[in-house]
Design brief:
Length: about 425
């Protein structure tokens, strides 16, 4: 069974099923299509499937012409999970958010797996790419697959290979980012390496699915902890009258032992704000209190409040309060130059300002209309950055520093700027660092 599947994967005769066609699944689909595989794309969102069938894209950095070419080469998007039986490989790229108690929410992974199980057959490999705590693959997916009567490692194969997508990063692509892969058994790993080896330049094997799961958490917790450090340093530097961005630029000239991280209004994206909680939650099962990681999380979670306090103090100097002020938030995507809104600290900032009575508006060239979000709601559209719109607001808050903003125009016509990204190195009387 193993050798036949490996041969199909290496000869590109295997059919690949990508489950979840979002920021991770869609680029992966494009890569498999690019090298000549047949790809079936599964998603529960009919509107996404309809757009893909028409050759359209719903992700800004993935142009429609790439979707159109993929359709011409045989890409088949569908909501029909019974077609999973046609695939030789099923790669799960579904969300793993937190619930209201900041605990892991595996409902997308488990519901997706349960939808696939009735259609599994011998000779398939299942790969989970969704970030999760160590043990998820063998504790949750393994028994579900074997409930089908399939022995994992003999009849079917199971691996964990964490996604490493960085939306909007022009320097790294799905092909060039090394891929970590761990298998439930040695045979599973061998199949996993064949699955990814044809589309990724370098596949990095590890000893188990748990090692692969923890690898992804370490990568993002490393970033979360260092961002927490620099966010705390920002507050200290501000009290001392020092520009933290100047300090970071100077420290970054050291050719060893220092990696620059940059402060902001909080953490955003699909990984860094969430992944630490997956490990801290699982660690409690082993009697471990991850104090260092949790402290960084507390610092990062407090950043929107810090920015609000700076806005309040700045308006107070102008003899105004947040209540009743017109505040324009610049950039509501979670990072610059993308349309990705997941866990964006800008949205938290907007909610806090609204709750304090501000009249909130936003401008973001990448997000023309505020999207439907599970936990956040604004009936707003992006307003253009004009001299009139800037001067009509009491405060401009730079939350996400997109390159497409005209920073000279903003500086010239805003009555007050609260800069949470350090875009303005020289502080003028009407510019406040946050």
């Amino acid at each position: 069974m193993k050798s036949g599947l490996i041969e199909k994967l290496k000869s590109k005769k295997a059919a690949i099923g990508i489950v979840g066609l979002g920021y991770v699944g869609l680029p992966l689909m494009l890569r498999y299509i690019e090298v000549g595989y047949r790809v079936i794309g599964f998603d529960i969102d009919q509107s996404k499937v309809d757009l893909l069938v028409q050759g359209k894209s719903y992700i800004e950095h993935i142009p429609a012409d790439r979707i159109g070419r993929a359709r011409q080469r045989g890409f088949e998007p569908t909501t029909d999970f019974s077609r999973a039986a046609e695939a030789d490989a099923l790669i799960l790229c579904v969300p793993t958010p937190l619930n209201r108690y900041r605990e892991p929410d595996l409902s997308f992974v488990l519901d997706t797996t349960d939808s696939l199980v009735p259609h599994l057959r011998p000779g398939q490999v299942v790969s989970l790419e969704s970030t999760t705590y160590p043990g998820t693959t063998d504790e949750e997916l393994l028994p579900r697959i074997e409930s089908r009567g399939l022995k994992v490692g003999r009849d079917a194969f199971l691996v964990f290979s964490p996604e490493r997508e960085d939306p909007g990063n022009p320097d790294f692509t799905t092909r060039t980012i090394p891929k970590v892969c761990g298998g439930h058994t040695a045979d599973c790993l061998e199949v996993g390496l064949a699955l990814y080896g044809q589309v990724i330049d370098r596949v990095v094997p590890v000893s188990s699915t748990r090692a692969a799961e923890l690898t992804k958490l370490l990568e993002n917790i490393h970033r979360a902890v260092n961002i927490g450090l620099v966010n705390e340093m920002k507050i200290v530097a501000d009290r001392m009258g020092i520009d933290i961005h100047e300090v970071i630029r100077a420290a970054a000239t050291k050719p060893f032992g220092f990696v620059p991280y940059y402060p902001g209004p909080g953490l955003g994206g699909h990984c860094i704000p969430i992944d630490p909680f997956y490990l801290t939650w699982k660690a409690r099962e082993y009697g471990v209190h991850t104090r260092f990681i949790e402290l960084a999380g507390e610092v990062n979670s407090s950043m929107p409040d810090y920015v609000v306090s700076k806005i309040s103090a700045a308006l107070n100097l102008a003899r105004k309060s947040i209540n009743g002020s017109r505040i324009l938030v610049l950039g509501i995507a979670y990072k610059k130059n993308v349309d990705d809104m997941r866990e964006s600290p800008s949205v938290i900032l907007m909610e806090k300002l609204r709750d304090l009575g501000a009249q909130v508006a936003y401008s973001d060239p990448h997000v023309p209309v505020f999207p439907n979000m599970r936990e956040h709601s604004f009936d707003l559209s992006s307003i253009p950055l004009t001299r009139e719109n800037l001067s009509a607001h009491d405060c401009i808050v730079l939350a996400t520093d997109h390159d497409r903003f005209d920073y000279d125009l903003i500086r010239a016509h805003a009555a007050l700027i609260v800069d949470s990204r350090g875009r303005y190195p020289a502080v003028a009387n009407h510019i406040v660092k946050a």
